[in-house]
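Batch 3, record 17
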Amino acid sequence: MTLIGYYPGCSLHGTGRELDQSIRALAEVAGVELREIEDWNCCGATAAHCLSHDLAVALPYRSLALAEAQGLKEVLAPCAACFSRLKGTAVRLERNAELVARMKELTGHEFHGGVTLLNIVEYINRLLAAGLKEKLTTPLTGLKVAPYYGCLLARGEDVIADNAEHPTGMEAAIRAAGAEPVEWNFAVECCGGGFSMSKTEAVVELSHAILADAEAAGAQVIVAGCPMCHSNLDMRQQTINAAGLGRHDLPILYLSELVGLAAGLDPKRLGLDRHFVDAMRVAPGRA
Amino acid sequence: MTQAHKTHEPTLAETLHKATGTNVVECYQCGKCTAGCPMVRYMDLAPSQVMRLAQIGDAAALERLLASTAIWSCAGCLTCTQRCPQKQDPAAIMDALREMSYRRGRVSAKQKKVLAFHRAFLKMVEHTGRMSEVPLTGLYKMTSGDLFSDVTLAPAMLLRGKLPMLPRTIRHRKEMRRLFAACRRKGDR
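Prediction for the assembled complex:
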């Protein structure tokens, strides 16, 4: 059985629960063991890199060091923000021996760079290539999907392998699920991310523009890979409507939920019942 | 290099270069960062103006930067960094200026909520090792005065199992507190 290390990140135990559920369900179908890094800590997210450069590197460093010490050569970080912090740190450490020495001193942990990181898109495409594709026996035929990468699944030099302005990794997975990716303009635009609570008005405007463009392109669903994007587009959709910006009614699924549906998994097991905008209607046979 | 060069006070551009690896002097003001910035409409200085002031770097320019709302309105989306034809990293410059603004107590009063959120977030991580929504929101609301926003979302989140009440913690919490203390000391040097 293939072993992949797992860094769920904080959101996946709370607001992003369905991401955790669907990621684990796919692993089970694909016959992959996900092993959580023992005692992993928060990556620091936006807060750390805004207030302290040392902290923004030291927090991911500790989790990377733990993963390495626990023999995990590959680590999946499904949250786009966690992935960006973890891989961004790994890349910086690789290039800067002085930084490695400083982090060792600050954290008391050693890290030798022996951990490869996977994001949600890479993880799913990897499972698909390793046999999951043949298990997608419930194709989502005719479903029009807007692939939404947002910022951190598209940008970050040497962090994201896909093309920054025109990424295609999600499209491949959407097609494998039997659905149809739409061409649209907001695939790599920002939703306002971590400003959800502190600059809600900006998040409402930016997320509204994303929803409106997906609708104009004929999408029936947006697929995302980040718990921040998901809560801004799903949980805030009623706030956006209440602000008089639109009458949106667009389900927002995680990529892992969409592929899970094509694998014939129970939508509740994937967490589709936890959404704010009804997502259960996307499940085959429920439309 | 002459002795005089070795001993001069570092310029703002040099300080930023050391902190971020980006040398703002190389920016030729094409404006591409500003054109792609999703947050520019919420900023008092556009990203290209932040770069220009960083080049000028005198006391007035520095004050303008550190007290700006722009640095606290940057979402860190990396569009500017991705598109810069000079391979500059304006997003990292924003980070470095935010840290400077925070450490020197120059944060714009208008950005109180953003700072309160970041601080509440880090306080959680310092004491528990992880972020938990309920205590984070409580701490944020107490320190920002932003008491009543989103209260209607909470019951719906609870219903969906998205608001676990107990804070999530790691086992080695002492390690976190030591790490935060060490980072604070480093910053004060």
